[in-house]
Amino acid sequence: MAERKKVVKYRKPFHINIGVVVFGFIFIYIVFYIFSYFTSEHIAVYEVGQGTIAENNTYYGLVLREEKIISSNYSGYINYYLRDAAKTSYNNLVYSVDETGNVAEKISSSASQEAELDSEDYLALKDKISGFSNAYQSTSFYQVYTFKEELEALLMETMNQKALNSLGDYTSYAQTNQTFHLVNATEPGIVVYYTDGYENVTMDSFSPEMMNALNYNKVSLKQNAEVQAGEPAYKLITSENWNIVFPVSDSTYERLAAKNVVNIQFKKDGISCWVNYEFQKIGDNYYMILSLKDHMVRFCGDRFVEIELLIDEESGLKLPNSAITEKEFFTVPKEYFSKGGNSNSNGLLVEQPAESASAAMVFVETTLYYETDDVYYIEKDELIQAGTVIRKPDSNETYTIRDTETLSGVYNVNKGFAVFKQIDVLYQNDEYTIVRMGTSYGISLYDHIALEGNKVEEDDLIY
User: Fold this and answer.
1) For residue 447, what pLDDT is reported?
2) Residue 238 and residue 300: Cα distance in Å, rounded?
3) Which residue ranges of the chain lie beneath pLDDT 50?
4) Can you give the three-state secondary structure of 203-268, one letter per residue?
5) Residue 137's pLDDT is what?
């Protein structure tokens, strides 16, 4: 009988397939990433760009000045001998009142019939027209009407004065009979021929309701052929000092509160100048009060003027306000920092607890987030907490970490995780902030930051 042979099943040796292992790890990573992507809150990213914030700094201001209404002492027909907005000296002839109307009629008739101007009159008109022509711009055509009124006033002054001089004997006789009265200025100033009810308003009596130009009522005095005793004859502005007041936003107040001089431009004629200013809070609003010492003559006929504050536009890195957040840091004196560790980085010598089995002092690398002349700003971690004791290099002097400060900043996400970066704010409005470029611990042009800073924390992964 043949001998039976025992068959043993051959077991193949176990071999690890590297490709399968690598594929498994990749598969697990992809599954984890997809799971994290769909279960995590997504943070939008913003690319930092350079920009400028420009605001509308044009305002309608209320003009306040030293002025008084001069009333007539006589009743009768009135004639004027000074043009509107003309400067007068003491005892200069301003107007006349004729109680019978005979002299006034002859003055009007003579002024219209004997329209003869001498060489000096023509030269004055020529200079006036030449000055307007040189300064004229098509974008401000409305000034033509103002110029027309100024020419008419100049001609009225000239012709009435000539007519009065030509009636010397006649007017002298009327004066003797006390039916014709020549009225001179009792003090120097600027003569204007209108009233509006704002003559006695000062900042002490000012109220916000006065800013409503729709309720403004300007009454021309030159339209009246007759005047009654006690009624306004003209108005005299007695000082070159005047004010312009207007409401401003809280952001404009905060931007200018620390200063007292600003450059302004009058929209009426494009002329600009530097003026002093102050703020006054009335109710919930801030009012800016400009103080001027010249240019009065050009605006003595205006109660409201349009001006622009020529504030320098701030340029820098432009960030959305939603990206800005705050973070608290420890402040540590600079003399306690030293270089060390494998990367020769800044760090601190931290004293270990007494029960620790490690060395009494250990070097802890730190990331610097900001600095002043005396301290560095660092964040807390496992080894650096409030109450941690650190030692000054090459000394036995120690310091207990406890002081904190808060910094404004954004989270930089260039490397896929959040890193806080301090910002130096130059200007801010309701939507955007301009920050200084080139700061040591800040952001740079084209950096990527988290669009919603309050939803991010240090070292968060950004998907």
Assistant:
1) 95
2) 11
3) 1
4) CCCCCHHHHCHHHCCCEECCCCCEECCCCEEEEEEEEEEEEEEEEECHHHHHHHCCCCEEEEEECC
5) 62
